[in-house]
Amino acid sequence: MNKFRGLISFAITMVFLLSVFSTAEAAKKVPVASEKDPVIFVHGFTGSSSSFDNLKQWLVSQGWPANYLYAIQYSDTTGSSVDNAYELQSFVKNVLRQTKASKVDIVSHSMGGLSTRYYVKYLEGAQKVDDVVTLGSPHHGTNSSYFGLWTQGAREMVPGSAFLNDLNSVDETPNGSDTSAPIQYTSIYSSADTVINPYTSSIINGAENVEISGVSHSGLLTDSSVRPLIQAGLEDGGKNTN
């Protein structure tokens, strides 16, 4: 009888230990929410989502989860920034659905900065965006756009266009809907950028404007000196002084 009771006691102990071990293993498998926002990359005029492949790899090395980095491919790469903004709106919804996050950060190159700002100002971006970082974006137009006037995208980038006047009216850095945490803006641009003419067109009133030198328009996507500036903007290093 004592031997039988001992076997029962041993069995109960083993069941308890296995239960504790299984619980611990299960806890390890529960995904931990990332402390970072998902990042959406927005290409420019005639651009491609693949333009950001190197930057995405670098951000992974800096601690961003690979499944938190997304690049949109617009259906019309020379089309209206207004139409592109609506595509961006749908893309953001899908990213938030997949990641279960509440907001995203956006990194935009060139004309992509215009559709991004339109999305924030007039669509759902006010509720869904935390940080905006633009790279060589013609926020106040570029004289290079005159070479592509057969496209809607280029016509909107003509300095003084109705589109730009509307986009820059009242407030170039809208706060967003969260009054306790206004959207932070960073504009990174280069004095060696000959596509954005004048290059100072990239300045956004109210944002953290960062001027660099020696980097071309396309180089803003890959130059190693730009990456830490992008990272700073994604880590709430931007401004919103309006």
From TrEMBL:
Any one GO MF annotation of this record: lipase activity
Superkingdom, natural source: Bacteria
Signal peptide positions (record): 1-26
InterPro entries to which the protein is assigned, alphabetical: AB_hydrolase_fold, Lipase_EstA/Esterase_EstB
BP-aspect Gene Ontology terms: lipid catabolic process
One Pfam family recorded for the sequence: Lipase_2
Keyword entries, A-Z: Signal
Protein name per Swiss-Prot or TrEMBL: Lipase, putative
